[in-house]
């Protein structure tokens, strides 16, 4: 298939480009380097050096003989995006090109406005480009489990049947985000559902949990093909951050009581989930929603795992329960359903000690590069703003 990957320079985007390319598909990757530039501006660059996207594609081609077409540009620029759609006529578009950080969206008004504008307009532009260039193109959109929040009822896979006063109907599962970033993901879902109903486009919306890991079969082929691995408070995900903290002898930053439970998945499983969704598309006029996680953990459970493996490897890992900068429940019910992707054929890579040891081993090689100042900045959900992050 011809596949267009928006946000191709990202943590998920670059490994996805290689994953599809390796399997014989024609891949086009787009990125505007927002994340690279924001990480420089906030002094929180990734741990491992990553060549720019054009260079990475060249290295990939040299190693495999397979070409990934790269265009540096902005998905919120409709003329640019439409030109790409018309030129390549993709069968599938994977939309990763968003501002992906909850803390970033909470820094100040400017970053909140950017997050809203960037995430919603990029999604709108894709819908319009699909309508104009190829109405059968399957949109695969990355949403987040954070759209649901932490309700006191089981979380279904996207939809909920409601019986009300003797009548029944099916609706999007109720959602209540805990950051502005997550709110934009809810708005994306609402917008996509509107256009699915109105124009009959086809969409798979993946409610993904926080991803961890650094390794995929393709990325492991050369040190210059690794994904960007963030461990800072702004762009890092929790497990990756804890491993770097352990290696840096920095007490693990557990927010508050640490009873916050979320669904997680390995980077390798993100590849599988997107691939399974792309190769088994939905029909026109359908919005399919999957909960893209493979297991659930509380923050305390993750910290305990990192302690156990880190101590076995000779580190002296400590846990620090710090004042929670976020506004969230620290003890709550959490029971999401996540069977749809398993039914499509997902074979999960669970968080074993060996898997965690592999992340430690990779991080250790770059131990001297760890910027301790980036680990915790204390970006607060309250009205205050941190100096140095504005
Ligand atoms: N990583 C996770 O744990 C996780 C979990 C749930 C959902 N997601 C979602 O998955 C997607 C990818 O996340 P990621 O972790 O790879 O983030 P990332 O920041 O590493 O990748 C996103 C990429 O999109 C690019 N981008 C942003 N806006 C753009 C625009 N307007 N035009 C072109 N490129 C643009 C950025 O430069 C970046 O390279 C995001 O939508 C994110 O919200 C990620």
UniProtKB/TrEMBL annotation:
PANTHER family: DTDP-D-GLUCOSE 4,6-DEHYDRATASE-RELATED. Belongs to the NAD(P)-dependent epimerase/dehydratase family. The lineage of its organism: Bacteria, Pseudomonadati, Planctomycetota, Candidatus Brocadiia, Candidatus Brocadiales. Coiled coil: none annotated. It comes from the Bacteria. This is NAD-dependent epimerase/dehydratase. Residues 3-291 form the NAD-dependent epimerase/dehydratase domain. InterPro entries: Epimerase_deHydtase (IPR001509), NAD(P)-bd_dom_sf (IPR036291).
């Amino acid at each position: 298939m011809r596949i267009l990957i928006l946000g191709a320079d990202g943590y998920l985007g670059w490994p996805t480009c290689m994953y599809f390319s390796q399997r014989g598909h024609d891949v086009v990757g787009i990125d505007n380097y927002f994340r690279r530039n924001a990480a420089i501006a906030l002094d929180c660059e990734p741990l491992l050096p990553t060549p720019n996207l054009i260079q990475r594609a060249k290295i990939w081609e040299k190693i495999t003989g397979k070409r990934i077409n790269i265009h540096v540009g902005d998905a919120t620029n409709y003329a640019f995006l439409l030109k790409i759609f018309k030129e390549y006529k993709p069968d599938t578009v994977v939309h990763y090109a968003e501002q992906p950080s909850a803390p970033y969206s909470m820094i100040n008004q400017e970053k909140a406005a950017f997050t809203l504008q960037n995430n919603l307009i990029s999604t709108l532009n894709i819908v319009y480009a699909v309508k104009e260039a190829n109405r059968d193109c399957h949109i695969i959109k990355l949403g987040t489990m954070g759209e649901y929040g932490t309700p006191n009822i089981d979380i279904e896979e996207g939809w909920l049947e409601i019986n009300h006063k003797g009548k029944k109907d099916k609706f999007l599962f109720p959602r209540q985000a805990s950051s502005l970033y997550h709110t934009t993901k809810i708005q994306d879902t609402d917008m996509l559902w509107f256009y699915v109903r109105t124009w009959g486009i086809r969409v798979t919306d993946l409610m993904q949990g926080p991803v961890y890991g650094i390794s995929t079969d393709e990325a492991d082929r050369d040190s210059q093909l690794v994904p960007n691995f963030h461990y800072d408070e702004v762009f890092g995900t929790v497990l990756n951050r804890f491993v770097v903290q352990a290696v840096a002898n920095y007490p693990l930053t557990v927010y508050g009581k640490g009873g916050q439970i979320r669904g997680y998945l390995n980077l390798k499983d993100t590849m599988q989930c997107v691939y399974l969704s792309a190769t088994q598309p939905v029909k026109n006029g359908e919005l399919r929603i999957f909960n893209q996680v493979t297991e659930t953990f509380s923050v305390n459970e993750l910290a305990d795992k990192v302690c156990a493996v880190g101590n076995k490897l000779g580190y002296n890992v400590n846990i620090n329960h710090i004042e929670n900068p976020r506004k969230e429940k620290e003890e709550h019910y959490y029971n999401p359903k996540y069977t749809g992707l398993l039914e499509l054929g997902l074979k999960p890579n669970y968080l074993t000690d060996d898997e965690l040891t592999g992340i430690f081993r990779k991080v250790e090689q770059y131990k001297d590069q760890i910027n301790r100042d980036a680990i915790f900045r204390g970006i607060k959900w309250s009205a205050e703003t941190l100096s140095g992050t504005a």
